[in-house]
Write a structure and sequence with these properties.
This protein is mainly α and 201 residues long. Helices cover 32% and strands 6% of the residues. It contains 7 helices and 4 strands; from the N terminus they run H-H-H-H-H-H-E-E-E-E-H. A two-stranded antiparallel ribbon has the order 1-4. A two-stranded antiparallel sheet has the order 2-3. One of its GO terms (cellular component) is outer membrane-bounded periplasmic space.
Length: 201
């Protein structure tokens, strides 16, 4: 969370919005940032910027923090920092063009707050989010769909939607596995979803 009492509250890094998706977009962008083949993922020691602070003040002392710990404790500051390395244009292109998140607005949502923290101008649909999260299963994105083929009682093809369904390799399979494991850590103490893991899992 962002501490709105900080001087950053009036800057474009994070804007309050009624259409926030919260942590879902952060997970997608972190997945893109773990892809070692993405040119945006270069370590840079020459850049320093003042960042917003986390709500509880933890993690803002300049100490090194693992992405593993930051994600499971929902530290937005680390997510913004990682998003800045990938870049707003790259994040937007990936979410809009590769993951078909068409509700993202190219005029208002090409920035870190909408893309990393989820404060888009219109938000995303549940179907878009479910489709986007599917990349953490082997890195493949399949166009969200409710059905592929419908047959009548005689076994004849009545409706065919399969031509509209496409699958692409959105991120490297290894990056997908890493993100899958990182996401599962929110269920472990001191994760933000500690104690909420479904019993069927």
């Amino acid at each position: 969370m962002i501490n709105y009492s900080s001087p950053m509250a009036d800057t474009p890094y994070y804007l309050k919005s009624d259409h926030q998706v919260l942590d879902t977009d952060r997970c997608l962008k972190l997945g893109l940032s773990t892809d070692k083949y993405n040119a945006a993922n270069q370590s840079r020691d020459d850049v320093w910027r003042d960042w917003p602070t986390n709500y509880d003040g933890v993690g803002g002392d300049g100490a090194t923090m693992l992405v593993y710990d930051a994600l499971r404790r929902s530290y937005n500051t680390i997510a913004v920092w990682i998003g800045s390395y990938v870049g707003a244009e790259e994040l937007f292109s990936f979410a809009h063009d590769t993951l078909n998140c068409t509700y993202l607005d190219p005029e208002h949502d090409v920035d870190l707050a909408p893309l990393v923290l989820g404060s888009q101008s219109q938000g995303l649909t549940v179907v878009e989010l479910a489709g986007a999260y599917s990349i953490f299963n082997d890195g493949k994105f399949t166009t969200p769909h409710y059905w592929t083929e419908i047959y009548d009682s005689d076994g004849n093809l009545y409706l065919d939607n399969s031509k509209r369904v496409t699958t692409v390799q959105a991120i490297d399979p290894a990056a997908a596995t890493i993100m899958n494991r990182l996401l599962s850590n929110v269920w472990k103490k001191p994760g933000t979803a500690n104690g909420m893991k479904p019993e069927t899992e």
